[in-house]
Amino acid sequence: VDQRAFEAWYDEHYRRVYASVLLVSGDRATTADAVDEAFARAWERWSRVQTMASPVGWTFTVARNELRRAGRRRARERELSPPAEVAPEIDVALWETIRSLPKREQELIALRYVARLTEPEIASTLGIAPGTVSRGLHDARERLRSMLAPEEDFA
Amino acid sequence: MIDLEEALAPLVERAPAPPAVETVARRGRRHRRRRAVTLVAALVLVAVAAVGAIAAVAGRDEPRVADVPGAVDHVRVTLLDGSQLDISGPASLGLTELPLSFNAELVYTDDAPLGYNPSNSFTVVAGSSEIAGPVIALYMTGDNRHPLRVYEVEEGYVGVVHYDGWSLLAYWNARTFADWSAFANALTGRVGTDGNLVVTPSSGWNLGPTDSPDVRIGDYAFFGPAHDRCRADVLTAGEQCNGEGTVMYRALDPALGDTLDDIDVAYTPPPDG
Fold it and tell me: Is B101 helix (H, G, I), strand (E, B) or coil?
């Protein structure tokens, strides 16, 4: 592992990946675990991950899959999911409205506006066409606008 | 105008500091050791199988049959348009045991009075999918035998058609009676003698691909020729194409990305295509 390159990338992107996954999961404890696991896998495969179109997108996807696996595990063990924790860092109405969007739109918002990936990088991360990313982001912004402030535009 | 980047920036600013990189490296090393152990276990299994095969050959004069596990799994999947994928991979991937699902879309192609072409994507899964929630509408599908039941669920509305051994599911965000009825009319499904469900669109409609994979086997996604995803300008890292350049496949779980090299796919067009 090129330790120095990994460390620089890790320090630069950890918070952004954590925040994107938190926006999708709504739960801090499971987010921290999933994100740490994803970065461990990125370390393990760093020579390959660092050549990818979007290492951040890859790490986000691994963390998201970890969350799903954890969710399935909890369901199997008949545990109740912990209640989604409100993130006090941002406007509560905005947080709750984003959390009420369909999962795919939450992911698009998280990857575009929190992880700050480009639309082609998001398309590659989610395995969908770039046009679908544009349309999905447009729909998500429209929905946010109509729910939060009908007279406002979202950029 | 609300700037979403700015509004969401505090989420990043106040995220916890990254744990020490050594913690991540330790966890990564543990993964690496686990993978090495798995690889050794797989090699031991192959060696056991090989010894079994040699023993079977050596003892073939004796009246017994050695049951040697095959090293390669082969799955033939019939897509909803009748085309087929022959997928093979090492038995360790468990391709024959992973859940199967299909995705497609019915698109109205005639001149649409509303000024747009309605379309409905849907998913087909093996078995009978039961939805919890009240049935709020029911329509007979185009074959006049299988009803489309529409349920109200937390995320919106889901329509389900049950066929012998298969369930077809379509999702809507809004309460759109006209769309449900049109979709039901457009849909004709039939389970062939081979047990496969083949969907035929009614006149004026086309069956086409969605943005989702044509077929999913566990965490592996396969996109057939209609997606045209094997061109160099659209193929991205983590995606692979078969030798004929007709089928693109990728692992939805990035941790499985390394296993794509071990998978082979052959495509056979639909009988009438």
Answer: strand
